[in-house]
Amino acid sequence: MTEHTPIENRYDFTILFDVENGNPNGDPDSGNMPRVDIETGNGLVTDVCIKRKIRDYVQLAMDGEFPWRIYIQNRKTLNRLDAEALEAEGIKAPLENKDLAKEIKALKKNDPKLDRRLRDYMCANFFDIRTFGAVMTTFVKGNLASGQVRGPVQLGFARSIDPVDVQEISITRIAVTTEADAAEKNNTMGNKFIIPYGLYRMNGYVSAKLAQNITGFCNEDLDMLWQAILNMFEFDRSAARGNMAVRKLYVFKHSSALGDAPSWKLFDAIDVHKRDDVDVARRFSDYDIKVNKETIPSSITVDELVDHGV
Amino acid sequence: MPIRLEVWGERALFTRPEFKTERVTYDVMTPSAARGILDAIFWHPGLYWRVDRIHVLNPIRFDNIRRNEVDSVVVASKIRSMAEGNGDGGAIYASESIQQRSSMVLRDVRYVIDAHFELLRNKMSLTDSAAKFQNIFVRRASKGQCFHHPYFGTREFPANFRLWEGDDDPIGFEQGHRELGYMFYDFDYHDSAHPNPLFFRAALDNGVLDLESVEVRS
């Protein structure tokens, strides 16, 4: 992305999202029950779960277009299958970013700079590698660190504000899969887990220095990231998820690459509480959110992003 | 010139090298992970961090997390042929490369790191000095500045940090002696193409992991 300059400011951000009658993130260790911290009862959603949704949104919105391609994909896209068919017929898909391709082709086999070039090529082409990083093999043989690209965007786990209650719902279906079953019974039972309501909070970090020194993550990428976060559940509907929505995205912009204040102080400034007159929370309006601006240094701007325009 | 940094977070994963597929954490932070936190705040080619002590302030508690992961990495040769116009670079399809792996992690951790840095004179410029490095670190740590956000072992477990306030020594979570067995110390990078893992016999005394008088071996 030679024409785009990497971001120059550090950012911290907080996402508030909720689930209604759904399972935001199943736990493979407990039969796909929603993840719950067993000591506190709070619901959990892993970092990789949210990263998956960000990738999927960008894949869907940009349709694999340069430079928004996604390296770690959920499933094979129709385009890819088309391309494979074409390739089988001996027709190669046209390549974007031809200059760099030529350069790489021209480089000698054992050029030590080749690794760097390949890494830059990956970062230039793939939004997810530019954003989250990737592990690449043997870019320089034996040197452990060189194959690892650390992306500027880092996410923690999401945790629900209050303990969630997990309900197991038994369901039946009329159709039966096998003939043998059909002879014995005329329906089967299944079960699904839901959380009636949960408001979750996830914190994240964007390092300008990693963007500048390694992946070239730029302002256009940052806007794409916010857009992806705001819309990440809009295209992830399924029987399991119920109603999920991003309710708030708070972005703290520091005045410099290194930052002006500790992240935890900024996160502490956003206070999310169940309203006193609410016994059991069942909707977003059962929560009060207060941003204590006086504890945030004036050099840091706080933006509440709510643009849900797709 | 020693520094004293308080770090804390909700979870931590200091993976034992012998249990790295289904990851199991060490009981406490490794010196290598502590160095990683310091490096994330300030690093310069002219210095390297030496961790002297790690004070363990919270009881050692575990939690288990199983996640869907991919089993592949980006392959350089495929990237090369993609750049030359062939194939898709071996994009990783999560549904095909799926692997479920569990991690045994620590929860609610809080440590105080005592450390100092040593200088590499040949990598320093004329205006560099120990005092300058020290000041940069202290300034950054007190303002919450960092090169990238530090973490406890893996990036999904962010570490909060601040300079230790007050003159009192931190108080460990327990009294007495606790053996932790052989523990990873750090890599020896003298031969940068073949970093050599170093280990030491770890023990907590009144909640403090002493690293000054331990024997480190490969």
UniProtKB/TrEMBL annotation, chain A:
Stored InterPro entries: Cas7_Csh2/Csh2, CRISPR-assoc_prot_Cas7/Csd2
Pfam entry (one): Cas_Cas7
Domain of life: Bacteria
GO biological process: maintenance of CRISPR repeat elements
Name of the protein in question: Type I-C CRISPR-associated protein Cas7/Csd2
Organism expressing this protein natively: Bifidobacterium simiarum
UniProt lineage: Bacteria, Bacillati, Actinomycetota, Actinomycetes, Bifidobacteriales
Encoding gene per record: cas7c
Automatic annotation (TrEMBL), chain B:
Encoding gene (name): cas5c
Keywords of this entry: Antiviral defense, Endonuclease, Hydrolase, Nuclease, RNA-binding
GO MF annotation list: endonuclease activity; hydrolase activity; RNA binding
EC number per UniProt: 3.1.-.-
Species whose genome carries this gene: Bifidobacterium simiarum
Described purpose of this protein according to its UniProt entry: CRISPR (clustered regularly interspaced short palindromic repeat) is an adaptive immune system that provides protection against mobile genetic elements (viruses, transposable elements and conjugative plasmids). CRISPR clusters contain spacers, sequences complementary to antecedent mobile elements, and target invading nucleic acids. CRISPR clusters are transcribed and processed into CRISPR RNA (crRNA).
Domain of life, per lineage: Bacteria
GO BP term, example: defense response to virus
Protein name as it appears in the record: pre-crRNA processing endonuclease
Top EC class of this enzyme: hydrolase
UniProt similarity note: Belongs to the CRISPR-associated protein Cas5 family. Subtype I-C/Dvulg subfamily.
